[in-house]
Amino acid sequence: MAGSASFPVARQPVRAATAAFIGTTIEWYDFYIYATAAALVFGKVFFPTADPFVSTMASFGTFAAGFLARPLGGVVFGHLGDRVGRKKALMATLVIMGVATVGIGLLPSYAMAGFWAPALLLLLRLAQGLAVGGEWGGAVLMAGEHASQGRRTFAASFAQLGSPAGLILSLLAFRLLTGLDETAFAGWGWRIPFLVSAVLLVVGYFIRVGVNESPDFARVLAQQERAEVPAKEVLRTAWRTVLLCMGVCTVAIGGIYFTNTFMLSYTTQTMGLDRALILDCLFVVAIIQFFVQPLAAWLADAAGPARVLIGAAFCSVLAPYPMFMLVNHGSAYSIIAGIAIVLVFMATIYSAMAGYISSAFQTHIRYSGISLSYQFCGAIAGGLTPLIGTWISHRYPGQWLPLAFFYSVLSAITLVSIWGLAAHKRRLVRSAPNARAAKASA
Q: pLDDT, tens digit, for every residue of 347-380?
C-alpha cells in the first residue's frame, strides 16, 4: 500500500512503530487475559475437581497448549510474511486472535456443556497460539525494517513494548472486577475482558491497515530473492542460529510467565494472599516494565546490544533470590520491590533481543527465522514455566529456594546463548567475504 496523503512515506517509520506497538498491545492483551483467567478462575469454570491443585494444573495445561501452537503460527505466517508480505500476515494474525478471544468469552461452563466446554476452550486457545505465533515476528520486522540501520533495536522495541502494555490492560481489566463476589466472578465477570477484545480488534485493524509494506521486503520482491519455502531454508542453512536465538529468548519469555502467571497462583494459593493485592502489585510492576523497556533499547543502540544483553542476563541469574525474600514478606511494597528486581533485567533482555536476533538472519528468511526461534522458545519456556513452577511449589511446599534456582537456570541459558550468538555472528561476518570471493571465482 503506497504512502497516502495523511501518512506520507517520510512518516512511515513512526507510523510503523506506532502500529507495531498498538497491534502487539492488543494481541498480548488477548493472550494475557487468558493467562490471568487460567490462574484465577478457569480451573473452577472448566475443570472442576475436589483438588484445587489438579484443577489449576489442568487450567495451566490449556495455557501451555497455546504455546505449543505458536511454532506452527511462526511457520505459517513466517512463510506468508517472507513470500507475500509482512503486512498481510499481520492483518491475518490480528483478526484470528480477536475472533478467538471473543469466542472464549462466549463459551459455556463445564456445568452447562460438560466435556464440550474445555474442548472448545482448548480449540480457541490453540487459535490464540497460532495467531500470536505469527504476530511477533511481523510486528518486530515492520517496526525495525522501516527504521534507519542505527536505530533498529530501538524501533523494534516498540513491538516489544506491546507486551507490558497488554499486561497492564489485562491486569486493569481483571482488577476492575475484583469487587465482584466469587460466584459472580466465576459465573460471568471473567467474560467481560474477553468480550472487550471485539472493540480492540476493530481499532487495531484500522490502525494497521495504513502502514506501508516493509522497505526491506519491497527490495526482496524487486530483486526476486524470495525463498521457495522459507522455513525449510532456515532449518537447512541457519539451524544453529535458530537454537542460539531460542536460548537468547529463554528468560525473557519464561520469566514473564514466571512473574505474572505462576506468581499469581503462588501468592494467592500457596501464600494465601488476597487476589486484589497481588493484581495491584503486578499492575505497578508492569508500569515499571513499560518505562524500562524503551530506555533499555535506547541503551542497546548506544552501547551495543550484545554488551547490554550480557550484563542484564548475568544480573538476572542472581535476581530471583532477593525477589523471593521480599515477596515472602507479604506486603504490597515488598512484593512490588521483589518482582521489580527481577523484572528490570528481564525487561532489558526482552526489549533489546528483538533487534539483536533479527540481525542474525538474512532478509528473505528473516520473518521465518525470528518467528521459529521465538515461538519454539515460547512453546518450551513460556508454556512449561507455570507448570514447572506449580509442580516445584507442590513438591517442595513452603520452600522458595528451588523456585529461585529454576529461574536462575532460565537466566543462565540466556546468558550463555547471548555470548554464543555474538561469537556466531562474528564467524559469519568473517566468512562472508570468503564466500563471496569463492562465488565470484566460480
A: 999 989 988 898 888 888 888 899 899 888 988 8
Which of 293, 308, 344 minimizes the C-alpha distance to 418? 308
Alpha-carbon Rg for the chain, nearest whole angstrom, is 21
Alpha-carbon distances of 261 from 39, 65, 258, 264, 298, rounded to whole Å: 6, 15, 6, 5, 28
Quote the CA–CA distance of 360 and 425 in Å, as a whole number.
7
Cell output for 434: 570468503
* The model's pTM: 0.77
Could you read off the pLDDT of 394-403 as tens digits, one per residue? 898 888 999 9
> Are 173 and 67 spatial neighbours (Cβ–Cβ below 8 Å)?
no
3-class secondary structure, 3: coil
Contact 263, 60 (CB under 8 A): no
Return the DSSP state at 214: P
* Alpha helices for 12-51 (secondary structure H): 12-40, 42-46
Residue whose C-alpha cell reads 532449518 in the numeric block: 235
Residue type, 28: W
**How do residues 32-67 score in pLDDT, each as one tens digit?**
888 888 878 888 888 887 777 888 788 888 877 887
Dist. CA 26–CA 252, nearest whole Å:
19
